[in-house]
From TrEMBL:
It comes from Tetzosporium hominis. Residues 66-252 form the RNase H type-2 domain. This is Ribonuclease HII. GO terms for biological process: DNA replication, removal of RNA primer; mismatch repair. The gene is rnhB. The keyword Manganese applies. It is found in: Cytoplasm. A divalent metal cation binds at residues 72-73, 165. Manganese or magnesium. Binds 1 divalent metal ion per monomer in the absence of substrate. May bind a second metal ion after substrate binding.
């Protein structure tokens, strides 16, 4: 009879039902049954992720023949730092990217791993960083829209269809602004991951430059610790003058 520890190690490597596992299900030891229950849950989650992946690829294909570019942004809401946009054209075979999902649903480690896979497997991708100054000059909505268009224009191949996350864009190609697009479209999800990881890295660098604000922890969002830091130290070059409460502070 195998030890529970041995069974645990085997189950870690098992990705589908086998004769060994079918026989193991007859083992009445409570520890074994707990391990099997945990494995069943893990398999169910994996199968759901695969099903979600198939739906996202089918969604992108639903727009017909053509070169689809997914576009998304990161950083519209923070009080500091840029807004970052990305445009991605994926290959016909995207199975290597089956775990790509809305960046908000992923851990930081998963986003970094998937960002590398996207860079390796995407046919083309482009990233644009829209500065704080441009955000204040244009307003956040227009700055984001402009940045998305610039990301599309930087692609090495011109797409024939654009799918964006809820943002209508002034482009010559058909553009589909999809509500919650990063959860529905694989191309948009890939763009969301590239935008998010690029912006996170940017804010981590800012954290080194301005350690008093803790940008590496909150990415510029208006958290209690960030607001407290602003109260104690004032603002820096990366704070958005058009956003409250910074706008009122600057006006004093």
């Amino acid at each position: 009879m195998e030890s529970i520890q041995t069974i645990k190690e085997k189950l870690k490597l098992l990705e589908q039902e086998t004769e060994w596992l079918s026989a193991l299900r007859q083992d009445t030891r409570s520890g074994v049954q707990k391990l099997i229950t945990s494995w069943d849950r893990r398999l169910a989650k994996r199968e759901q992720r695969w099903s979600d992946y198939l739906e996202r690829t089918a969604f992108d294909r639903s727009f017909g023949e053509g070169i689809v570019a997914g576009v998304d942004e990161a950083g519209r809401g923070p009080l500091a730092g840029p807004v970052v946009t990305a445009a991605v054209i994926l290959p016909e075979d995207t199975t290597a990217l089956w775990e790509v999902n809305d960046s908000k649903q992923l851990t930081k480690e998963a986003r970094k791993h998937l960002a590398e896979l996207i860079r390796q497997h995407a046919l083309h991708y482009a990233i644009h960083i829209q500065s704080r100054e441009q955000i204040d000059q244009l307003n956040i909505y227009e700055a984001t829209k402009q940045s998305m268009v610039l990301a599309i224009e930087q692609l090495e191949q011109t797409p024939t269809i654009i799918v964006s996350d809820a943002m209508p864009l002034p482009v010559t190609q058909p553009c589909h602004a999809i509500i919650k697009g990063d959860a529905k479209s694989l191309s948009i999800a890939a763009a969301s991951i590239l935008a998010k990881t690029t912006r996170d890295a940017y804010m981590e660098e800012l954290g080194l430059k301005y350690p008093q604000f803790g940008f590496e922890q909150h990415a510029g969002y208006g958290t209690p610790s960030h607001l407290q830091a602003i109260e104690e130290h004032g603002i820096c070059e990366e704070h958005r003058r058009s956003f409250e409460p910074i706008k009122s502070l600057v006006a004093k």
